[in-house]
Design a protein that fits this description.
alpha/beta; Methyltransferase, Methionine Synthase (B12-binding Domains), Chain A, domain 1; Rossmann fold; 2 domains; 59% helix
Length: 216
């Protein structure tokens, strides 16, 4: 039963069907499946498949955007249950995440935010095409433990560096750990721009985040 439901959840993301994704999320909760498990075994599998299809040139930007929207719809239904499940356990840390200016790709960041939320982090997702100044303002305002900067294009990667530089200029760099990620991003680039952490996938991002905060 649950396996069939997980498969349908995965398919709803691949199809970019936000209404179906939200409905399946509700069904999963009603069936008593933990929200984190629904996310992990159902919807995340779908968004990973969408990412793979895009990488192989079988999906294009519209499918990518639709998949991300369907994922958001599912997460919106699951969020109260994810939050409730966290009440019984200590929050691991706080994070602000966003895709840098000039970049409209949400998919990888959406997966990372969902996975981190399920793992026990409080995540504020700023969306995509986020200006450097907005990241700086949010770090000043929210004082997060972590700042996650995503870039899916080689042309927007420099905005990860600019954000780190802007944090330094604002006197905020020492108070936040900065993680970078995205398809073209490498550990060498992360080192070059002075980031604290890097991961090439969502599962790894949770592990790196825990490590940076000494919660591994």
């Amino acid at each position: 039963m649950a396996e069939d439901l997980f498969e349908q959840m995965k398919q709803s993301i691949i199809d970019g069907d936000d209404e179906k994704a939200a409905e399946l999320a509700r069904q999963g909760l009603e069936a008593g499946i933990p929200a984190a498990e629904i996310l992990d075994k159902g919807f995340v599998k779908g968004i990973e498949e969408v990412g793979d299809l895009f990488g192989r040139g079988e999906f294009f930007l519209p499918e990518l955007v639709q998949g991300a929207e369907a994922m958001k719809a599912a997460v919106a239904v699951l969020q109260p249950a994810l939050d409730a499940s966290k009440e019984g356990r200590k929050v691991l840390g706080t994070a602000v995440a966003g895709t840098v200016a000039g970049d409209i790709h949400e998919i990888g960041k959406t997966i990372v935010c969902s996975m981190m939320s399920a793992a026990g982090f409080e995540v504020t997702d700023l969306g995509c095409d986020v200006p450097v100044e907005t990241f700086v303002e949010k770090v000043r305002e929210l004082k997060p433990d972590l700042l996650l900067l995503s870039a899916l294009l080689t042309t927007t990667m420099p905005n990860q560096q600019k954000t780190i530089e802007a944090l330094k200029e604002a006197g905020l760099r020492e108070q936040v750990r900065v993680m970078v990620g995205g398809a073209p991003v490498t550990s060498a680039w992360a080192d070059e721009i002075g980031a604290d952490g890097y991961s090439e996938d969502a599962i790894g991002a949770v592990a790196v985040a825990k490590e940076l905060l000494g919660k591994a």
